């Protein structure tokens, strides 16, 4: 149960002096969260922290929240926290005067630079007590840091980090360094922080204390659901937090409506292994099949003022990457359409033959500083959903109605814009033929979507069972590819000695925030691929495996370790339980994980961040869904 009363304990002094939230108070909360794995306990610690802020410094709540999720601004504004390991080591050396060799040795044994920084500070004598840090000061310095570019930027960054490190006390250095690295990894998943935010708002209202315990619990659950749903549609704390402080929980959604210019987290699909699985799932329901285009997801926005932008599936602003889409937009928007958010796929296109080109062609396009006149690979847009139109959200409408609106608000324009090809028959033979046609047209397969009724609404950020994907290779293997993070590599042999010849891959567990090893891969690479991978990865080599790499007791040991930055799409024959790999450990076996048999590299997924990679939950589902249950349960082999 959460207590409504708050105590200021030892932090009141700093509060009193600076009317700011002490950084020590935040770090104390981090320590408590780190010491438990219980989600309820973590939520409660956060609620207590937020309640204090709401009561004493409501204007500081937004910064406090950003610090908890370790972000500086909404994703689409593109300011990133991550400071490279070598910078941080230099900063620790210069702020503590410790020998770099000792620092590196301690880092290799702990795998955590934060702990190294804290220990280094601890062993250092101080002549005078520096002024205590506040959350505001740390947040603003981190923001400044992320904007430093150009001349002398390295020195300027190290000086800034130093200025903070010098003021750190106790565990502050540990969390400061982890924040600078870009991830805290103490269980503060965004969903937990959202729940805590909602609960603290409810508990801060005097009228809550008059309710029965049962009613309070209900109010807390309702508030968490409301805040999460609003966040899904308007992922912008800069708007949500002030509205929450100003209005009642009930009224606040009216002041936080989705709008063009702010990207929603896209809806995702569940993999299936056969067409009969689709028929089983959608039995007696109306559904529709669409081509699954093999390009890059593009959420296109038009504001009433005429401004337009394209966002990636990670809410990254890609408008500069696609100036050609931006400049042609007016050709395919009907005159009556004044604002919209469209869900589309941008696909490489052969203008001469009016044909879709494979994904590999799209991936050769430049990703930065693209000038329209230099573009060699043309793209077209295939629109499959409309989420917002002329000032109104369409999210709650069934797909059938959203599609009607889509078709009336835009027009197909040759070589520029098309509606996703669709087929509405529920007959399995028709679907099989449509699947074959999609493959002939260089698509990946089909998306099959529930078409009418309440469940056919658009569910932002959800991997929904109301959207199913069927890929062409569904008959062989496990039905879908996986997107895995490269965390280590082995040097090649023979003519491959100057590059990495094999790699260690991991999936991601969002609950524990760990990367869990899943396989060693050395198949599917051309000589050119290997050279490209070497060049792309060599700058991300780290001294030791990160503390959040789950490797098991008898781990596979690569020659080099990497930061978790690169995501690759991989296919495999099947999955097996393994004592050496740790994917989904604890889910199918207490100490063993799941590994991939005969993994094969398909392609790099630059559109996915490491935390968007296949989750351990999904790996577990793949394992249980294997076509032949007797297969894949044998002993693991080390490829
Ligand atoms: P996957 O990345 O395999 O989970 O597949 C989902 C992706 O397929 C989406 O993120 C879109 O980029 C892409 N896609 C292609 N065609 C469609 C479509 N008709 N409907 C929804 N998503 C599509």
Automatic annotation (TrEMBL):
Its main location: nucleus. This is DNA ligase. One of its GO terms (cellular component) is mitochondrion. The keyword rRNA processing does not apply. It comes from the Eukaryota. Keywords: ATP-binding, Cell cycle, Cell division, DNA damage, DNA recombination, DNA repair, DNA replication, Ligase, Nucleotide-binding, Nucleus. Residues 372-509 form the ATP-dependent DNA ligase family profile domain. It catalyses: ATP + (deoxyribonucleotide)n-3'-hydroxyl + 5'-phospho-(deoxyribonucleotide)m = (deoxyribonucleotide)n+m + AMP + diphosphate. One of its GO terms (biological process) is cell division. Its EC number is 6.5.1.1. Belongs to the ATP-dependent DNA ligase family. NCBIfam families: dnl1 (TIGR00574). PROSITE patterns: DNA_LIGASE_A1, DNA_LIGASE_A2, DNA_LIGASE_A3. It is found in: Nucleus. One of its GO terms (molecular function) is DNA binding. The keyword Ligase applies. Gene3D superfamilies: 3.30.1490.70, DNA ligase, ATP-dependent, N-terminal domain, DNA ligase/mRNA capping enzyme, Nucleic acid-binding proteins.
